[in-house]
């Protein structure tokens, strides 16, 4: 299994050209241009934040298979021909990290609660399953449909982000409406810390260890 990384800086808005269904799986053909540059069969492209493998391509589109697990985790079931999608090629070691490290492994979907204009920004509130809220922190990072965004506020079951004009024009998020579903990938660093804490003091990381490290001024809690 490949482990690609992404930054959440969308390179291009593509469009769903064709969908072939096979039971609970799908095959997508996505029209695009920029992300095809330097891409070959077997490479990975994030589609609305979901890492997919290019299985075929031509000068105007690429094809990717979508597994039943991906269909369950994402909002891909809502795709129709001409649906706009956010596209990003996998990160190269020479690239600048403009967003935050993402794996392209969507945790689940969120539902847009409201979209409100606020001077030059659009504030978007999104509800997600309570089990994912523990990874959402104010001023932390979250990926929404593959876009690296900063959490402005959070509640017990929702969070909000402020979309600046540039991000709004370069992505397909403003094409959404209240009630629409979006793909959510929480910051994976929080998941690793949680797992280490669960391992116990003999093998893993503990709050006591973190507090001790914090006394040096480098890892403060």
What does this 3D model show about the protein?
With 221 residues, this protein is of the alpha+beta class. The protein is 16% helix and 38% strand. The chain contains 5 helices and 12 strands. The chain has a 6-stranded antiparallel barrel with strand order 1-2-5-4-3-6. A 6-stranded antiparallel β-barrel has the order 7-8-11-10-9-12. It is globular, with a radius of gyration of 18 Å. The two termini are 35 Å apart. The model is unreliable at 216-221 (pLDDT under 50).
Question: Which helices and strands occur, and which strands form pairs?
Answer:
Layout: E1 12-22, E2 25-31, E3 44-47, E4 50-57, E5 61-66, H1 68-73, E6 84-89, E7 108-118, E8 121-127, H2 130-133, E9 141-144, E10 147-154, E11 158-163, H3 165-170, E12 181-186, H4 188-198, H5 207-214
Question: Within the largest sheet, what's the order of strands?
Answer: 1-2-5-4-3-6
Total beta strands? 12
User: What is the approximate shape?
Assistant: globular
Tally of individual helices: 5
Instruction: Kindly report the average pLDDT value.
Output: 89
């Amino acid at each position: 299994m490949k482990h690609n990384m992404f930054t959440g800086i969308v390179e291009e808005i593509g469009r769903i050209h064709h969908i072939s269904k096979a039971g609970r799986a799908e095959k997508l053909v996505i029209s695009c241009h920029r992300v095809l540059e330097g891409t070959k069969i077997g490479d990975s492209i994030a589609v609305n934040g979901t890492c997919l493998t290019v299985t075929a391509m031509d000068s105007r589109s690429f094809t990717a298979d979508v597994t039943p697990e991906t269909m369950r985790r994402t909002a891909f079931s809502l795709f129709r021909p001409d649906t706009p999608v956010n596209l990003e090629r996998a990160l190269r070691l020479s690239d600048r990290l403009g967003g935050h490290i993402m794996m392209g492994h969507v945790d689940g979907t969120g539902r847009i609660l409201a979209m409100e204009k606020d001077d030059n920004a659009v504030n978007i509130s999104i509800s997600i399953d309570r089990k994912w809220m523990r990874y959402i922190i104010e001023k932390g990072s979250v990926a929404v449909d593959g876009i690296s965004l900063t959490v402005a506020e959070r509640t017990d079951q929702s969070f909000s982000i402020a979309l600046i004009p540039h991000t709004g024009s370069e992505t397909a998020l403003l094409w959404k409406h209240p009630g629409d579903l979006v793909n959510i990938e929480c910051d994976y660093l929080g998941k690793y810390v949680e797992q280490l804490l669960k391992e116990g003091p003999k093998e893993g990381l503990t709050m006591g260890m973190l507090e001790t490290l914090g006394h040096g001024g480098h890892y403060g809690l």
